[in-house]
Amino acid sequence: MLRNIYDELLRLTKIEDAFYSSVQEIEGYNIESFSYRMAGYDMFKHDFWKEMRWIAFIYGNEIDKPKLFTLAYHKFFNYWEWETISEIKDLQIESIQDKVDGSLIMFWKLPNGKIIAKSKTSINSEVANSANNILNSDQVLYSFVEKYLDLWIYPIFEYVWPDNRIVVSYDKSELVFLWMRKISGEYIDTNHLENIRNTEIPHISMSKIIWINNLDALMEKQKNDEWYEWFIVNFKWGYKLKMKLMTYVLKHTAKDNISNQKNLIEICLKEETDDLRTLFSDDEVALEIINSTEKKVYDFYNKVVHEVELLFDKYVYIFEKYKNTSNIEEKKAIRKDLVMHTLKNEYFRLIMLKLDEKDIDFKEYVKERLFEEVKELNS
Predict the structure, then answer these.
(1) Which of 22, 42, 70 is the endpoint of a domain?
(2) What backbone torsions phi and psi does residue 183 show, to the nearest 5 degrees?
């Protein structure tokens, strides 16, 4: 049962920089969300590690041991990514669905009966608050969510809104129904899912289901369709993968990226290496370059974020003291003292940005550092 894996997921955050958890408090309860920063296929060595994607637990007050709070999709991968091709060869396709461009939303009920929304790792984000507003204004939807949460079945939604155009544009803000998953980890099958939606919440938009059940038809669709970017392939027994349309891949990826180190680093930081793997699926040398560069970039990014967050924790008292004083001289003294203690630290610039409450773009920082390394190697 997935509710029993908390200790293992927490242990994983201690041994791998790519994985982390964050805790938020609501009405005396702690909501601990698990996620990952940048992690390639080989980082998900065990099935339960794949649950490090938006799963959350609740504890505090009368809940003495962490209890499963929200559950969404497990981590699944892209076609042409690592071993996925051999893994799906003998699997039976159940259906495919278009990938909705928005923010994933899950719901759960607090011990006092209140239902709240959660986005990727937050119960207080703007999209979570917007999802709460939609839920609380729609009694039919509210009753639907409550009914299945009480049955330990988690409805999964995507919140979309007009100002968040990624590939597909939306003309209104709404919750789009994606899927449902049981506490055991089992997914509701496609037929049952469509029947539930059509019967119980027909007014709620649903991710489009396309009935394809063989690999040849899937590959033909992947080659020829043009009206969206991605689709998700649902296999029987819960295996899933993402597939990007070939027309999109060819339009947005140039083959010369493989020979340009800086371009390849940027592609890794954008987490778009699956495009290149598709183009170079029959070139072992190129795939090795992509895979080794991705690992290097991911490892360095995770190391930087982990070490910087530890530094921020170390100096949190100084940051708070600086923020809360209005005395100019005291601010100067605090700043001077922090500079003296951290000037030679490799993350000095980020520490000072934190002191000034400026946004920190870790990917941009990592890109700069890796670009400097490339320059040194080429000089």
Answers:
(1) 70
(2) -60, -25
Residue 252 identity: H
Residue 249 lies in a domain: no
Structure confidence by residue, pLDDT tens digits, 327-346: 999 999 999 999 999 999 99
Residue 124 lies in a domain: no
- Phi and psi of 169, rounded to 5°? -100, 150
pTM summary value:
0.72
Helix, strand and coil in the chain, % to nearest 5: 50, 20, 30
Domain span holding position 348: 259-378
2 within domain boundaries: yes
3-state secondary structure of 152: coil
Q: Provide the number of structural domains found in the chain.
A: 2
β-strand pairing of 56-60 with 63-70 = antiparallel
Q: What is the DSSP string of 80-134?
A: TSTTHHHHHTTPPEEEEEEPP-SEEEEEEE-TTS-EEEE-SS-SSSHHHHHHHHH
Torsion of CA 130, 133, 134, 137, to 10 degrees: -170
**Each residue of 154-181: pLDDT tens digit?**
999 999 888 654 555 567 889 999 999 9
Q: What is the DSSP string of 228-264?
A: -SEEEEEEGGG-EEEEE-HHHHHHH--GGGGG-HHHH
Last-in-domain residue among 70, 87, 115: 70
Tokens standing for residue 250: 């060819």
Determine contact, residues 75/40, Cβ cutoff 8 Å: no
| Residue 345 within any structural domain of the chain | yes
Determine contact, residues 273/267, Cβ cutoff 8 Å: yes
Beta bridge partners of 33: 22, 56
Burial class (CB in 10 A: 0-12, 13-18, 19+), 65: exposed
